[in-house]
Amino acid sequence: MTNQVNILPMIALRGTTVLPDMIVHFDVSREKSIRAVEAAMLHDQKIFLLTQKDPEVEIPELTDLYQVGTVAYIKQVVKLPQDLYRVLVEGLDRAEVLGLEQEEPYLKAECEIVTAQEEDYPEPVKDAMLRSIRELFQRYCRESGKVSKDLVTQILNIEDVQETIDQIAVNLPMAYQNKQKLLEAVSLNDRYEILGALLGSEIEVIHITKDLQRKVKSHIDKNQREYILREQLKTIREELGEENTADDIDEFKKQLKELDASDEVKEKISKEISRFKGMAASAAEATVQRGYLETVLALPWNKKSEDSEDLENAWKVLEEGHYGLKEVKERIMEFLAVRKLTHKGKSPILCLVGPPGTGKTSIARSVAEAMNKKYVRICLGGVRDEAEIRGHRKTYVGAMPGRITVALKEAGVSNPLMLLDEIDKTSSDYKGDTSAALLEVLDPEQNSKFNDHYVEIPQDLSEVLFIATANDPQSIPRPLMDRMEVIEISSYTENEKEQAAYQCVVCVYPKKLSGEEKIKKTVTENMKKADEKQREQETLILPERLGKNEIRYYHPFNNRGMIVLTMSIMIGILLCALQKQNEKKELEDRKKQMLKDYPDIINKLTLYLGAGMTVKRAWRKVTEGYAREKEEGKKRYAYEEMIQTCHEMDSGVTESESYENFGRRCDVQVYIRLGALLSQNLRKGTKGLTELLKLESIQAFEERKAQAKRLGEEAGTKLLLPMFLMLAVVLVIVIVPAFLTLQI
């Protein structure tokens, strides 16, 4: 082997490896890389290309780079927008890096040219190697279909085995890690073995991929067809100016699945959702049906609150909230005691009767507080329409549910305390008798199947605790009065009103001391006694014993400053770490969101192009659809970049260049590929673009599934750091108070 040492400007490539005799272009954006290109152009146009092991490293060291690179000749340099340079190079020789000079404004590398000694293989061996590598290359080309026929013919006509291997390596699409292995293989035999293994592996992967695609395609064809049909239907509705109800239907189905109700109720609601699904969005019946579904899904069918049976607490609540009214309180306590003994049996309905201002409504609210029940109030004063109680038929214009149903919806549970206020002030007219409608509500034998005309589904009111209030019991109809138990509340005298205004109950309880606190208190008291006895003396003699125990005294040492300083440093370090973590997470979230939106964008473009639109028109149609969704607060990064592309085209930038800029701004491989695809097809004609986008859509869905699987596997490991941080915070919270109370 011959050695030649050169010192050349160097570029650290990310995700790319250049082989000898390989002509390729790449973009550079780092300041040092740009300066290295400029320095090479000023001399002999030679530059040393070395590949990074990790493409994410921004400022690579020598350990971050492979040891073998390529000395290349710069053929062309093109300046692009946003401080980008596109460099066209031709690989010349393999070279091993000896040292790296971190000089400004660019990197210099000391490299040694590596040339292989000529190997004298017998002709039969060369023929065998040539035939073997040709056969593998032909099989790969047939299976993959990624290599053009002209290139295949050109390579197969080469008679020299070394040249054949080099040409296959240069033109074979492979990962940069595999190209690096070929670059590091100096001898012909090593390159032959590595290339043969790579071709065999790629052929096997292609077979497995095709088999998996056939299996997956058989499963997703139906879903794909349904998705495309739904998107087409959505597009048609948008073109017709009709509102799409699909989102509402999905939301209703989700709420129905989470609803705690009987099977009969769910079946009825499910039928109503099916009816709503078949209605036109612009029809008046759809609006009525949507309001009906929102109402029945918001009702607490089987959702209940847990009642309190603590009678002592109930009496305490009544005493604190109301002055006097001893007989009324005792009667209410009897009522609560009966409910406790009968386990919420059919207890009577209380009717609080008394003049205005005697506290009837507040007593009902106190009862709800004592029983831990939701409290709702229904004012019946002046109600004369039966529909106010039973609701309207939903077929009527402006139909609404009754006040009972509205109160249940407001309470959120099926067993609240419902106050029927001013029940004596109901009346009747040609629209029906209100008191007659209340008979079913207050009858424990009937209200378990209460039927609201709007809801049309029986509701169970047997768990509702009804309390009524009235000023004049004579105005209450007799049948309604028979269903209630009257408790009379007399008005306060002037003396009682004055006492109630100034009376308050205060309970003072001594603080419960622990064992240590009791000892400290005893010692402090003994010290005070000793001080009182020895006031006239010059010295104070502290007690040495407490009963049978010896007392020792220490001067307290204040170490709070050191502890506070340590805590501040720890908190500062933690905040810095969290800030860096948040910044990194924002970039990752952006990339994940863009990858998630990619299949939808491809499908929309495919649909619009299939409908006969141009690429530019389809692009603007997608952005217009996003603009409507953005008004609801949903911001998507990929769509924002598409809007920026539209602005570029409006400002005079060519359409093809705008698509390429879109890919570079997104900085995600799939979007770069999409921009290049659109730009290339615009230059060569849009024939076959729809088919290419369909294939890209299928591939995007597969990548999304693979990404979801990978994220699921990584979720467990990502939780370790937050758990350790939380543990550290808990340890600080526990340990610091112990140090603060420590006395030396």
Task: Describe what you observe in this structure.
The strands form 4 sheets. The chain has a 5-stranded mixed beta barrel with strand order 1-3-4-5-6. A 5-stranded parallel beta sheet has the order 8-9-12-7-13, with helices on both faces. The mean pLDDT is 78. It has 6 domains: 3-114, Archaeosine Trna-guanine Transglycosylase, Chain: A, domain 4 (Roll), CATH 2.30.130.40; 125-208, Methane Monooxygenase Hydroxylase, Chain G, domain 1; 246-298, no CATH class; 311-502, P-loop containing nucleotide triphosphate hydrolases (Rossmann fold, 3-Layer(aba) Sandwich), CATH 3.40.50; 515-550, no CATH class; 569-722, no CATH class. A hairpin with a 3-residue loop joins strand 4 (68-80) and strand 5 (84-101). The protein is an alpha/beta fold and 744 residues long. It has 25 helices and 15 strands. It has helices at residues 31-42, 123-144, 149-156, 161-171, 176-184, 188-240, 246-258, 263-277, 284-298, 311-321, 326-341, 360-370, 387-390, 403-411, 434-442, 478-482, 494-502, 515-533, 560-610, 615-630, 637-650, 655-666, 669-684, 689-718, 720-740; strands at 3-13, 23-28, 46-51, 68-80, 84-101, 107-114, 349-353, 375-379, 417-421, 428-429, 432-433, 465-470, 484-488, 545-546, 549-550. The radius of gyration is 42 Å and the shape is flat.
